[in-house]
Amino acid sequence: MRLHSPMIKRKSLRACGILAAALLPIAALAATPHAADPASVDVDQSIQKLKEQSLDVIQQAQTLEQNFLYPEYNRVSVYVGVRIPGILIKDISASIDDSAPTSYQYRESESIALQDRGLHLLMRLNAQAGRHHIRAQYTAQYSDARPTDPPFTGSYDGYFDKTAQPADLELELQREGYLTRPELKFHDWRAAQ
User: Fold this and answer.
1) What is the pLDDT of residues 58-89, one digit of tens each?
2) What would the DSSP string read from start to end of 60-101?
3) How many independent structural domains does the chain possess?
4) Segments forming the whole domain that contains residue 108
5) Is there a domain that residue 48 lies in?
6) Rounded to an integer, what distance in angstroms lies between the CA atom of residue 82 and that of residue 6?
7) What is the residue-wise DSSP string for the chain?
8) Is 124 exposed, middle or buried (0-12, 13-18, 19+ CB in 10 A)?
9) Do residues 173 and 137 lie in contact, with contact meaning Cβ atoms separated by under 8 Å?
10) Please, are residues 103 and 143 in contact by the beta-carbon 8 Å criterion?
């Protein structure tokens, strides 16, 4: 009995090999890609072109809407930036003159994105030419803080002069030195040019 068992195994292996060799051409036919129908390729390319054109139209419409709602001579845009590695901004609130404050709470991924010289448009509004008062408050925390560590807060209170040109302002969380406390700094991009 022992002498015949290796023979049985060899015969079954040979049969499996023959079956696999017979099925190989069928598997190759199934894997061969079919030539694309030229008409369907044209339709696909037309659809892609329409998508691109519709995105252009949407972008132009949004630009027109923004220019209508916030004309250049009145437009004030306030951005938020973070220039301290390892600081995660939790929330910020800002107001110009006596307007209601605009607040934003950041998700962790948004705070991390701001670390790489990113900016977040906090608010856009209309303001007449002249001197304006801007106030802001923030909450932030170091990324490696323990859950029991309280976040730190800070504020900015200052003025800027609006001209007939659009005003692009930045509230930037930064610090002067490694051991100094983070603070909110104000930048008027137009004035810096």
Assistant:
1) 888 887 887 778 788 899 999 999 999 889 99
2) HHHHHHHHHHS-TTTEEEEEEEE-STTEEEEEEEEEETTSPP
3) 1
4) 72-192
5) no
6) 74
7) -TTTHHHHHHHHHHHHHHHHHHHHHHHHHHHSPPPPPHHHHHHHHHHHHHHHHHHHHHHHHHHHHHHHHS-TTTEEEEEEEE-STTEEEEEEEEEETTSPPEEEE--HHHHHHHTTT--EEEEEEE--SEEEEEEEEEEEEETT--TTSPPEEEEEEEEEEE-SS-EEEEEEEE-SSTTSPPEEEEEEHHHH-
8) middle
9) no
10) no
Phi and psi angles of residue 33, each rounded to the nearest 5 degrees, phi first: -70, 145
Residue 3 pLDDT more than 60?
A: no
pLDDT tens readout for residues 92-133: 999 999 899 999 999 999 999 998 788 999 999 999 999 999
Say if 101 falls within a structural domain.
yes
Residues 6+ positions from 37 with CB-CB distance below 8 Å: none
Q: pLDDT tens digits for 149-189?
A: 999 999 999 999 999 999 999 999 998 887 788 899 999 98
Residue 63 lies in a domain: no
User: ∠ at Cα 16 (12, 20), nearest 5°?
Assistant: 170
Please name the residue that has the structure tokens 């610090």. Answer: 175
